[in-house]
Write a structure and sequence with these properties.
9 helices; single chain
């Protein structure tokens, strides 16, 4: 009986081990592959894989054509003062150089001061010959007192005026179209008033542009040159002129004395009144 129970227990243990081995054995390859394929087919596709994004549009580039086409607008000015050996020769030489370089003298002034005879000229010279003219002028100098050169960049103002003129011209054309469509006198007068204002603004800007173009095209140079000379005296006057001047100066002196006496009248009256009062008081006291 004990042997039967032992065989029964051993058989049950062997059956349990064989069952575990069958459960822990790996599944067949086809089953794994089928399951993985199914899971991949059922998985949703990501948007990044299904739709290709379009490239971003290029960034807008600034319109630099106007700036590139517009040359630099530079206004050159100079002021020079120097001493010369012979004023007349220097005048002739400078005039020749001004004419040869296509310039002109816009203002001329001559004066004598402290024994010096001096000329002061305002010369307009083409901008491209600005440095050359200054070099030629300095050749006439034996001593330079002062020399100042400046350059002003007006490019920004020039471009701004140009754009404003174009913009106002477009507005002007629109108002002309509105003027044709006006239906009564009030509308006509209102549109004409706006046209007048815009026309004045355009003319003002165009005038400024012309001035800038002129200043840029022709440089302004103030040339002052002088010659040291002996102090000049007034010429001797004739005898009769001296007599007449002495006579008139005597009358002037007499009139001044009379006027001075009249100015003393208030003082005399005040002093006389005080003396009279004191004398009267003294007499009463003595009597």
């Amino acid at each position: 009986m004990k042997k039967l129970l032992l065989f029964f227990v051993l058989g049950m243990m062997m059956l349990g081990c064989s069952g575990k081995n069958e459960d822990s054995s790996p599944p067949p390859p086809n089953a794994v592959e089928g399951k993985s394929i199914t899971s991949m087919e059922e998985a949703p596709m990501e948007p990044s894989m299904s739709v290709q994004k379009a490239p971003p549009p290029p960034a807008p580039q600034e319109n630099t054509q106007t700036t590139n086409r517009t040359q630099k607008k530079i206004i050159h000015t100079a002021d020079i003062r120097f001493k010369v050996e012979d004023l007349r020769k220097a005048e002739s030489a400078i005039k020749v150089r001004v004419q040869a370089m296509g310039g002109y003298i816009s203002n001329s002034n001559q004066n004598r001061q402290s024994g010096n005879l001096e000329n002061s000229w305002t010369v307009r010279i083409p901008a491209e010959k600005f440095d050359a003219f200054l070099g030629d002028v300095e050749k006439e100098s034996i001593y330079t007192d002062s020399k100042n050169i400046s350059a002003e960049d007006v490019t920004a103002e020039y471009v701004d005026n140009e754009l404003r003129i174009k913009s106002k011209q477009k507005v002007f054309e629109r108002y002309l179209e509105l003027l044709k469509q006006a239906k009564n006198v009030q509308e006509i007068m209102a549109v004409e008033e706006q046209i007048r204002v815009i026309r004045e603004e355009i003319e003002s800007k165009e005038g400024r542009q012309k001035y800038l173009n002129d200043q840029v095209a022709f440089s302004t140079i103030t040339v002052s040159f002088y010659q040291e000379t002996e102090a000049s005296f007034a010429p001797d006057q004739p005898f009769y002129v001296k007599i007449w001047k002495s006579f008139t100066s005597g009358w002037d002196s007499l009139f001044e004395v009379i006027i001075g006496l009249f100015s003393l009248i208030p003082f005399v009256l005040v002093v006389g009144g005080i003396v009279y009062l004191i004398t009267k008081w003294w007499r009463k006291r003595k009597g």
